[in-house]
Amino acid sequence: MLDLFNHPASPAFGRLTGALYLSIAVFGAFAIGYVPSQIVQPQIGATLETILARRGLFTLGLGADALVMLIEVVTTTMLFVLFRHVSPVLAGAAAIARLMMVGVMATMLFFQAGLLMIAQTGGSPATAEVLLHMHHAGVWIWQLFFWLHLMILGQLVARSGVLPRFLGHAMSVGSFGYLLDSLYSFAFPDAALLGQVRIGFLVIVTFAEVGFALWLAIRGPRPVAPAARPAFA
């Protein structure tokens, strides 16, 4: 397995990258989507009670979050290696943006740990509400970094010559769903039209990301021509 990382041009390297990307989607959907839908209630008191009643699910969500972050570090590095032939500068910028996202996600685990402690010790619901709001704010922040990452990655994919161009362009266009979601959730919660538009972009980026990961995992990237040169710097 370790020898595989010494041959980034091999199809197996691309397939492993795709498989890891898919695993992020699976574990992330559980940790970011399913667990909060079961734990977070309209009232903070009810949320704390649910954390206690379903502590196993809550801590399993924390574990899935941590696993996603570890996989993210490896996957981000592999994505950089796959697309640095297009533009080392932009591939590096995309990698840094994604790692910044992971850093914000890691910080959010402290807020969740604080919620668990308050639920166990009967601490202040007001403090718990602040921690929960800070956790939500963390989502709005990491989405900004993810928007930047996907917008750049999409163009790297489109110009790479190793993957279908439409997947890259769809990823770049759909990435604005994350930016719009952060703006809607934090700054303009009453803008109904903005809320509807962001959903359309998020649908596009979801299909684009899944398609990108599946293409890598199943078919792998096409070999880069020996005479290939970066499409842009």
UniProtKB/TrEMBL annotation:
The organism's place on the tree of life at top rank: Bacteria
Membrane spanning residue stretches: 12-36, 56-83, 95-119, 139-158, 199-218
Signal peptide: none
This protein's UniProt keywords: Membrane, Transmembrane, Transmembrane helix
Keyword Transmembrane attributed: yes
Cross-referenced InterPro entries: DUF4386
Cross-referenced Pfam families: DUF4386
Keyword Transmembrane: yes
Protein name from the UniProt record: DUF4386 domain-containing protein
Lineage: Bacteria, Pseudomonadati, Pseudomonadota, Alphaproteobacteria, Rhodobacterales
